[in-house]
């Protein structure tokens, strides 16, 4: 039985005051799932300080594929590691779309994170036109394959996968639990071809308009191990309700 994991993706939201209130709210109540928040880089030290000693862990929303050097604006995995960062989102669809991250770049970022002890949360997902063209498995299969090709089984064992249909992100349109389960089962099957033990242990999260009122049904599916939560992670009551779903 895999324990549920619920990760908040704050995206480019927050302020010192708002974050402090949100983190106090999240810390105050117990959740059945393991909880994590992925904050903008300038707020990671605040998360480190305020979450110290709590059950809630924190992560970044991106990480450089490069180790160090002349890469203005990039943040290295070693820097995140120094702060005790647990997770880094990798290949979120907003990074793939607005920053032209390819499958190869996403795999390189995941590798770099692992090198410094950070667990990559690797995001995959199809657009609406890809789904309508019946290409969902082709697209997410290709995105996952790049990771399978780059990582050893041991490294794969430290990966969290997130299925986020692009058409469901921030739109209020959630995949039905059956649609999501089908893709999760497909993804787990592909990991299983590589290593059955890793596939059984791997957390595969669903993301895309998860709210307190749809989380219970989504999380009841056998291959959905929790959620990657955008909008609803900015309100502690909603985030905690999802963490208890
Ligand atoms: P959403 O975002 O919950 O606001 O749809 C999810 C995500 O982008 O990770």
TrEMBL record:
GO CC terms, sorted: cytosol
Lineage per the UniProt record: Bacteria, Pseudomonadati, Pseudomonadota, Betaproteobacteria, Burkholderiales
Binding site for substrate: 9-11, 170, 209, 230-231
Predominant location category: cytoplasm
Catalytic residues (positions): 92, 164
Role this protein plays: Involved in the gluconeogenesis. Catalyzes stereospecifically the conversion of dihydroxyacetone phosphate (DHAP) to D-glyceraldehyde-3-phosphate (G3P).
Record's subcellular location: Cytoplasm
Catalysed reactions, semicolon-separated: D-glyceraldehyde 3-phosphate = dihydroxyacetone phosphate
GO molecular function: triose-phosphate isomerase activity
Membership in a protein family: Belongs to the triosephosphate isomerase family.
Assigned EC number: 5.3.1.1
Broad enzyme group: isomerase
Annotated pathway: Carbohydrate degradation; glycolysis; D-glyceraldehyde 3-phosphate from glycerone phosphate: step 1/1; Carbohydrate metabolism; erythritol degradation; Carbohydrate biosynthesis; gluconeogenesis
Keyword Signal in record: yes
Superkingdom, taxonomy of origin: Bacteria
Protein's name in the database: Triosephosphate isomerase
């Amino acid at each position: 039985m895999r324990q549920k994991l619920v990760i908040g993706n704050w995206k480019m939201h927050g302020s010192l005051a708002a974050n402090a209130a949100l983190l106090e709210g999240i810390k105050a109540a117990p959740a059945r799932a393991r909880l994590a928040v992925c904050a903008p880089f300038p707020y990671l030290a605040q998360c480190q300080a305020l979450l110290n000693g709590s059950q809630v862990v924190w992560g970044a929303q991106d990480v450089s594929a490069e180790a160090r050097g002349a890469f203005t604006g990039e943040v290295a995995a070693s820097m995140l590691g120094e702060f005790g960062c647990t997770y880094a989102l990798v290949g979120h669809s907003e990074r793939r779309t607005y920053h032209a991250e390819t499958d190869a770049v996403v795999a390189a970022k995941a590798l770099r994170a692992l090198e410094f002890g950070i667990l990559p949360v690797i995001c995959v997902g199809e657009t609406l036109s890809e789904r309508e063209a019946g290409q969902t498995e082709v697209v997410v299969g290709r995105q996952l394959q790049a990771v399978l090709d780059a990582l050893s089984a041991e490294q794969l064992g430290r990966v969290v996968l997130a299925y986020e249909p692009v058409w469901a992100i921030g739109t209020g349109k959630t995949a039905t639990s059956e649609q999501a389960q089908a893709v999760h089962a497909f993804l787990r099957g592909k990991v299983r071809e590589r290593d059955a033990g890793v596939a059984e242990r791997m957390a595969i999260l669903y993301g895309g308009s998860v709210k307190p009122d749809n989380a219970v049904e989504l999380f009841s599916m056998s291959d959905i191990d929790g959620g990657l939560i955008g909008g609803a992670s900015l309100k502690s009551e909603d985030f905690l309700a999802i963490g208890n779903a």
